[in-house]
Structure formats: C-alpha cells, structure tokens
Fold:
Amino acid sequence: MSASLPIRPRRLRSSEAIRRMVAESRLGPENLILPLFVQESGPDFDVPSMPGVKRGNIDSLLASCEDSVQAGLPAVALFPCLDPALKDAAGSAAFDEDGLIVRAIKAVKREFPNLLVAADVALDPFTDHGHDGLLTADGRDVANDESVEALCRLARIEAAAGADLVAPSDMMDGRVAAIRSALDSAGLQKTLILAYSAKFASAYYGPFREAVGSSQPGGRISKKTYQLNPANAREAVREALLDEAEGADLVMVKPAGPYLDVIRSVKEAVRIPVAAYQVSGEYAQIHAAARNGWLDLAAARDESLLAIRRAGADVILSYFALDFARASSLLTR
Ligand code: PBG
Structure:
C-alpha cells in the first residue's frame, strides 16, 4: 500500500459499526404512515398489481390497524372504495354523515385512540367521472371554487368523525386556507392539515385507481388541469409555500422516488415538516421486479425508503410501511 495517501474515505466504511455510527440518514417506523383501503362489505379484495395490499371491510381494516400499532407505526391513511351505485357527478356520498369513511374513522379511533388517522380529502372516490372535484355545468373543466366548498364539507365531516389529520389530495387552488377556516369555525382547531401540495400528474397512480375502483378520469378533462406537470420543480415549491402560508401543518410531495429533487427543494423552502408519498406504482414496480427475481425485495424496499428520507422527507406514506416496521423491530430486538 502506498504510504502517501493520507485521505482514505474508505476508513469510514470499513466495518458495520463505523458505517452505522456515521450514517447521515435514519429511518424508523415512527417516520412511516401506512395507506389502507376500506370497502363496505364482501371478502377482502387483493389488489392484483400490489402484492400484499388488500381492501377489506371495516373489521378487516381494524385488523390492519392492530398490526400497524403492534409494529410501532404512528399513523394510517384511509381511502374508501365505494359501491359504484353510490357514485354520482356531485360526489354526494362524500357528504353522508354516516357514510363508509365516517364509520371507518370512528371505528379505528374507538379501537386505537393513539393511532393517528389521516383522512383523504378529494372527491374521486365518490364521483362517477373520477375527478377530484366537481365539474362545471358545461362539463369542460373542474370548477375550482365549487370544488373547494365541497372539499371543506368533506374535511369537516371527517374531522368531526375523529380524523387527526385531513389530507387534501385534490390540488384545487385555495383549498388549504378554506379547509382551515371551515374546521376552525366548526370548533375543530386541533385537526391537522396534511396538504398534498406538490402532487404531480403521474403515471405511477395506476395501481391505486384499481385499488379504490376510481374511474380512470376520462372525458374531455385531464387531471393535468390541476395536478402538477412532472417537468416543474419550481412550481412545486410555489405550491408548497402557498400551502404553508395558508396554514398547512405538513406539506407533501407525491410521488416520492421519481421526485427526490422536489422533496429536497421543498424541504429547503418551508419551515414545516415535509411528507412524501411513495405511491402505488413505485410499490408495484419493486414487487414486479422482485417477482421476476430481478431485485431483492427487502433490500430495494429499504433503499427506496431511505432515499426518500435522505432527500428530506420527515414522513413517508408507503405501502411498505408495515413490512419495513416489522423488519426493523426484528433488527433492534
Ligand atoms: C386521488 C388520489 C390518488 C392517489 C391518492 N389520492 C390518485 C389520483 O390522483 O388519481 C394515488 C396514491 C397512489 O397511487 O398510491 N385523490
């Protein structure tokens, strides 16, 4: 070995102990939120493109919440899957004070009072056209301000049912301020707002739409009229800053893995915690490769999550949350 090489970065990588000691990013169950799908009745439906992910009735949901608590997860995010017969253009079922999502929130909070529940605020599970908001009379656009009013109603119903966080995923303008004021005037000042601030118009949502049975929004309007263009990072920061100013408690970037630069920029711009959503397509692609024997499932899972954390996410929504938490409790035991 040459004696004249005093700077040898490999010294910091030479044993498991030193690598662990100087690790710059750490990820634990406390950083993760598990998304869960709930349906009214019937046997559990295994989502074909998302191995290990199912949609079940409220009892089945409670069993998943029990597993989450056991594994040390702090929170779950609930997504309802409605009977198509209940869907209409106005998303009326969203305002049913005894609807599926309301009963699901109440049941989870009754059984697991310390498990945080995040409730999605968007109309797509309830509309027959599959958009996150209401359409204009001529059907040519998603009507921003009318949609915001509807989203405020839904958020208030979810918060009153006991949701700890309401999570607007609709991307309408001005909805965070409107929801904050609607919650406050209903005496729901303690409910947090987890804003999907930088939600991109992404191909990676495909498997999710299968999981919740939401129509591929067709017709003349594209989700691109409200979700962000994947080309734009500065616009994503603008959206995050707006949501912070409007009173969001956390901002979110979604998807996560393909948008690590956006997570980093948002983290540097805001002073509130940043969440990132590792979406269905990100989960599906890792599973698909693992099924072919092309990737090691656990290693790719852990690396994908750690990369999102390293980019700056304080909190990660991931379908891997439970598997990761279980695996990490085996390590520290
Ligand atoms: C819609 C919503 C979507 C997801 C969460 N909420 C999809 C969409 O915009 O069509 C996607 C989550 C995932 O893919 O895992 N309100």
Summary: Residues 120, 122, 124, 132, 169, 205, 208-209, 279-280 surround PBG (CB under 6 Å). The first strand starts at residue 32 and ends at 39. The domain at 26-332 is CATH 3.20.20.70 (TIM Barrel). The CA atoms of residues 16 and 37 lie 39 Å apart.
